[in-house]
Amino acid sequence: MTNTYYEILQVEKSASESEIKAAFKRLARIHHPDKNSDSAEATARFQTLKNAYDVLIDPFQRRQYDRTLRPVGFGTRAPAPSEPPKSSFHHDSESKKKLDKRIAELGASLDQLQVQKSATDHDIWTEEELLAKLKIKLDNLNDEGEDEKAAGTASKGKRDFKLASWFTSGESAQVKEARARRAAERNAARTALQEQIEQATATIAGLRSRDEPLMAQIMKEMRELARLNIERESLARDK
After folding, report:
1. Are residues 225 and 110 in the same domain?
2. Which stretches of sequence are listed as region Disordered (predicted)?
3. Beta-carbon neighbour count of residue 200 at 10 Å?
4. 78 neighbors 72 (Cβ within 8 angstroms)
5. What number of other Cβ atoms are within 10 A of residue 7's Cβ?
6. 117, 148 in Cβ contact below 8 A?
7. Same domain, yes or no: 21 and 112
8. How far is CA 199 from CA 35, 130, 137, 138, in A?
């Protein structure tokens, strides 16, 4: 007569671990060789019970056996479950430990990367705000120069047209000198602003060059973390 391991232990296929243990203890008392004059038949029967118990009590071996369920006879040894695929997470208990450890490591790494990312984003935002202000100052400075140039041209045209007697050559020289002085000041300020703009632009470029690989690493670790969480959930369902 042939029997499955479940039939040998006289349990249902859905039997729990405690039910399998209880069934084995009960049957072992009956079929133990010490209680059967060490007969060859009793020894073989007990060994079959032990084989059935060893497979069904181990979650991985039990799943493998269920996939290739074959009836076996008392006194015979069922084919051993196929070897698990080579993987760092091949055994349930070891799998959970390794998964939990790796998930914790990734979580800590992501926390650190997020801190770095936040700091870099803040620095980029600060530099971009500074750059915007510098550009506004430069635009205002250029507008001021254009306005004064336009005003000077209009004033000169009006003087030439009216030939105002009160406008002396001395006053004209003073106006020209003041205008030239303001133009020189604007040029110096413009040069300083342009240098600051170039520096801010270079700083932003440097920050972005650090930010891109940082973001890529964050995305990579987030994908890995998601994969491991799915694997852990799958492992929990298989138990």
Report:
1. yes
2. 72-98
3. 20
4. yes
5. 15
6. no
7. no
8. 92, 11, 15, 15
Number of domains into which the chain is organized:
2
- Give me the domain span that covers residue 18: 1-65
Q: Based on the domain organization, do 117 and 184 belong to the same domain?
A: yes
Q: Given this model, what pLDDT does residue 68 score?
A: 63
Q: Are β-strands 72-73 and 2-3 bridged in parallel, bridged antiparallel, or unpaired?
A: antiparallel
Burial (CB count <10 Å: 0-12, 13-18, 19+), residue 21: middle
- Residue 172 in domain: no
Task: Please give, one letter per residue, the 3-state secondary structure of 144-212.
Answer: HHHHHHHHHHHHHHHHHHHCCCCCCHHHHHHHHHHHHHHHHHHHHHHHHHHHHHHHHHHHHHHHHHHHH
- Whole-prediction pTM: 0.47
Does residue 223 share a domain with residue 124?
Answer: yes
- Please give the structure tokens belonging to residue 79: 């084919």
CATH number at residue 42: 1.10.287.110
- pLDDT one digit per residue (tens) for the chain, 239 residues: 457 889 899 999 899 999 999 999 999 888 887 777 767 777 778 888 898 899 899 988 888 788 766 544 544 444 444 554 444 444 567 777 888 888 889 888 988 887 888 888 889 879 888 999 999 989 998 888 787 777 666 555 555 544 444 444 455 788 888 888 888 998 999 999 999 999 999 999 999 898 889 888 988 888 887 888 777 777 776 65
